[in-house]
Each structure stands twice: as structure tokens, then as C-alpha cells.
Amino acid sequence: MLAVGTTGRAACRVESANTAPNMGSGDLAVFATPSMIALMESAASKSVLPLLNPGETTVGTHMDVTHTSATPVGMEIRAESRLEEIDGRRLVFSVKAYDETGTIGEGIHERFIVQKEKFMLKAEAKKGHAHD
User: Where is the Fluoroacetyl-CoA-specific thioesterase-like domain (predicted)?
Assistant: First the structure.
């Protein structure tokens, strides 16, 4: 059952693929902000997935974070999440990311609980309404 206080973790090593030049977010070979955000989302998503009903998942809807310290290639990164608020299908998490020397970013992340099949049908329906 979903409960405030549920925590999650995700980790990775900084390598070429998750640096700013390869993510298109800058030209210095350091851990990219989009990579940090993805790791934070992963921690939050994985933390609640086993607690959802069959056929449900969560989707990220909002991220408000700061990325305060650069991390070079080769270092380990970990992200942590804590479920702070449950408002119907809306879940609010505090998120933080760390490298081997300390905090590199933190903020708030929101996810919504959705029915997988219904969500994908709605997304796929956009194909018939795309504008040129």
C-alpha cells in the first residue's frame, strides 16, 4: 500500500553516454542534468511500482530541481526519493542526487498513477491527429 515515507534509490556511474555533450545539454564532459533527472525519476518510479494495483504504473508530470555540482566521468552517482504527499492519483516526492563527494542536486518530483492500457491508447490516438 502506498504510504508517505516510502523511499527509493537508483545509481549509475558517469560515463560518456550520460555526459552533457552526449545528452545535448552542454559541451563539458560531466554528468548531464537530464541524466540526473532521469536517475531521480527512476528512484521515485521504482519505489512505488510494487505498491500499485495490477495494470497501474506512474508517469512523471513535473520536476523542479537544482543541479548544484558537476561530476566527472568515472564517479558513482546515486539518487534517492521519498514520497512526501499522496493526493489521489498525484504523488509528490522529494529527490536528491549525490556523487562520491556529496550532494549534487535536489528538488521536488511529481508523478501520477495511471492505468497502463488506457494511457497508451490515449497516447497512440494522437497519431491520427498529428499536425504537419
Answer: 14-117
